[in-house]
Amino acid sequence: MNEIIRKRNELLAQTVIKGLRSRNMQGYYAADKTQALQIALSLIPQGSTVGKGGTVSVSEIGLLDAVKNGNYRFIDRDSYADRRQADKDGHFADVFLSGTNAMTEDGVLVNIDGTADRVSAIAAGPQRVIIIAGMNKICKDVDAAMKRARNVAAPVNAQRFGLDTPCSHTGSCMDCKSPDTICCQFLITRYCRQKDRIHVILVNEELGF
User: Fold this and answer.
1) Rounded Cα gap, residues 168 and 34, in angstroms
2) Which of 44, 106, 168, 200 measures 20 to 30 Å from 19, CA to CA?
3) Domains and CATH numbers, the chain
4) What pLDDT shows up at residue 15?
5) What's the first-to-final CA gap in the chain, in angstroms?
């Protein structure tokens, strides 16, 4: 990474962390994926039940493999015959792992979901939520974060899942009501009533979509 960009991201991360703290959330800065993994594992007690939302960032830093192979009870949604039961178990996990579609410089999280399993768990349920966010997810304000979520994250995820939505063909949000739409639930997390329930690890790399 260019040294100037690295320094800029490091300084911006401190602003975001300050914003998160003002919103009853904890923020951390990781210079790279390795440090991000170390921070994340320090926040997950041994023996915890661990759930996960749809996220690429968690896998990219090696956290998913670490949880699967560690002393944790991982709730593997892919192993469930009943997806509803998998979502229910994940919703009441000790720790829930997720990425975020976008967030603002002052610490507001913006997420879009198709089935709501991820956004519902971020909002309530699990005792602790750990969010992994590359610095590419940081936006100036909520409007910019929403535009990123709808015009960057949603089209890429629709393509990733092979969904037949307008955005998967155009690369941009068409505000559709397609049967395949993943823009069903919008969650803006501006404050956490349970202090320090949500932990956000900012990684000075480009992660996820």
Assistant:
1) 32
2) 44
3) 3-203 (3.40.50.10420)
4) 98
5) 18
